[in-house]
Design goal:
This protein is an alpha+beta fold. It has two domains: 192 residues, no CATH class; 78 residues, no CATH class. It contains 18 helices and nine strands. The strands form three sheets. Strands 4-8-7-6 form a four-stranded mixed sheet. Helix 15 crosses helix 16. The longest helix is centred in the N-terminal third of the chain and has 16 residues. The relative contact order is 0.13.
Length: 308
């Protein structure tokens, strides 16, 4: 991909639904800042190939339910607890996904320290993936006229062992978590659950390569993509409502770009000396930041919206 629009077009490829006559993508998306990042669950990474993953998962969930009950807000089934744990940082078999390609693109460009490396947005066709899940699960989706599960729909499988035993062949199911808070709603989030708790998403891809896509986010485009996502209001302040998200957004928003890097990319014919003069020095940027107006006020007055 050579341009921002090229990346966006690739992410939205296949969104047209001829049956509905609408653009309704059958894909779930997951963005990571480095293309070499392994798509394994936090549970598998915690086990590190040494611990018994099944026993570790049971111990984590058992103790999470024991100590988190006062903050559980009505969590009932195993699937409620699993979703709540994943959302709050407990190592689980679940992976985070989103219905929004732009939210996934945010996570592929959220960390400026990764801007020297290509990122990637993974996408998986969950509608087609449903055709590979056990028949019992397919019947539940058909009865509910849904393409994804909820905790209530999976409640008949009271334990994870019952869920795993539905098929000898590993399968992948997509779960929409309960509306735990505004964050999960704003992120258009959903989770994937593998029946093989010790497996990685790459293992599933190898068995179903036709259902997955991997869109590279080139390092040389990350600054541009990041700034355009900010202007589109796809940022930490929106995706992580509250003071923590606001602080994260402001920290990244005011991270200075390197003038020679950025201008060599967008003004390749300008001499290096001119490129370096285009943006103020680091010290000058720091002074400007201390008295600068808010990002919103700079946009209203025609400024660039970036620190300095």
């Amino acid at each position: 991909m050579k341009t921002w629009l090229g990346v966006v077009d690739e992410l939205y490829k296949g969104a047209w639904n001829a049956e509905l006559h609408r653009f309704r993508s059958p894909y779930a998306f997951r963005g990571v800042g480095c293309s070499s990042y392994s798509l394994t669950s936090t549970l598998t990474r915690l086990a590190g190939g040494r611990a018994d993953v099944r026993k570790l998962e049971l111990a984590l969930l058992r103790n999470f339910r024991k100590y988190a009950r006062t903050d559980a807000n009505g969590a009932d089934s195993t699937w409620d607890w699993l979703a709540l744990g994943q959302h709050r940082g407990l190592p689980t078999r679940l992976l985070d996904w989103t219905y929004s390609p732009l939210v996934a693109l945010h996570f592929a460009t959220e960390n400026p320290s990764d801007f020297d490396r290509d990122g990637v947005v993974w996408s998986v066709n969950f509608v087609e993936a449903n055709k590979r899940i056990p028949k019992k699960l397919q019947r539940i989706l058909k009865e509910e006229a849904s393409d994804t599960f909820t905790a209530e729909m999976l409640a008949p499988f009271g334990t994870l062992r019952e869920f795993d035993a539905l098929s000898r062949r590993p399968f992948l199911a997509f779960l929409e978590p309960p509306a735990l808070d505004q964050r999960i709603l704003n992120q258009l989030g959903l989770f994937s659950s593998q029946s093989d708790r010790s497996g990685s998403f790459e293992d599933w891809i190898k068995a179903h390569p036709d259902l997955c896509r991997r869109v590279i986010v080139p390092a040389r485009l990350k600054w541009e993509i990041r700034d355009k996502l900010d202007q589109a209001n796809v940022n930490e302040r929106v995706l992580f409502p509250g003071l923590d998200g606001l602080s994260r957004w402001l920290t990244r928003y005011y991270t200075p770009a390197h003038a020679d890097e950025v201008h060599a990319r967008f003004e390749p014919n300008a001499p290096v000396s001119a490129q370096l003069k285009t943006l103020p020095s680091t010290r000058a940027r720091g002074k400007a930041t201390s008295r600068s107006r808010s990002p919103a006020s700079r946009r209203r007055s025609g400024g660039s919206g970036r620190a300095g």
